[in-house]
Amino acid sequence: MVKYFCNNTDIRSTWDHVVSAFWQRYPNPYSTHVLTEDVVYREVTADHRLLSRRLLMKTNRLPRWAERFFPAGMSRSVYIIEDSIVDPVNRSLTTYTWNLNHTTLMSVEERCIFQDSVEQPDTTQLSREVWISSSVYGFSRPIQVGYPFSSRNAPTEGSCKTEIGLLKISKNVVPPIIVAATLVHPLG
Questions:
Q1: What phi, psi does 129 have (nearest 5°)?
Q2: From the CA atom positions of the chain, what is the Rg in Å?
Q3: pTM score, two decimals?
């Protein structure tokens, strides 16, 4: 079973600042779980889009209920691929991320689109979609319920912490004010 979440958020900061902060996310004191970040590929296309692929290594503590099932010798580090497309003409940044290892236990795929707002000046719209699945019998439901986008967690708590953190650390960027965060539709 795959769980799908969709979230839309308005960040009160210009698209230029958000994109600049995006590239300065790691390392920072708000994301100590991110151990490494390596650029694997980067290209500027003929239509002026910047394509990038990065490899991230993260570590997070397992939920208590899962610790007893996770083999003691198994690595707690997760390798994540992040593909991004910066389109300066249409003023959008699109990211696709997915984990490379531990995919039997939990597979997470995420797409984020940071788009310059036409209606609201100095605002960037963030649309986020997440697909979560587990192949381990009995793990699927607890993992899906416990993910930060679950309906029991407020969207501003789970979905905007990264954006707030990355904008706080960006040089010359005023921390954003989240003006709207709407959980569009959790399906399950």
A1: -125, 140
A2: 17
A3: 0.77
Query: How many domains does the structure of the chain reveal?
Result: 1
Strands (E), 12-90: 34-44, 50-59, 77-87
* Cis bond upstream, residue 27 (ω within 30): yes
Contact 32, 15 (CB under 8 A): no
Best CA proximity match to 84, nearest among 119, 45, 117: 45
Q: Which residue range is the domain that position 168 belongs to?
A: 2-183
The CATH number for 101's domain is 3.30.530.20
Residues in the chain: 188
8 A C-beta contact, residue 7 and residue 182? yes
CA angle centred on 35, ends 31 and 171, rounded to 5°: 45
Q: Other CB atoms closer than 10 Å to residue 125's CB: what's the count?
A: 20
Average per-residue pLDDT in the chain?
77
DSSP structure class, residue 23: H
Per-residue confidence (pLDDT) for residue 123, from 0 to 100: 93
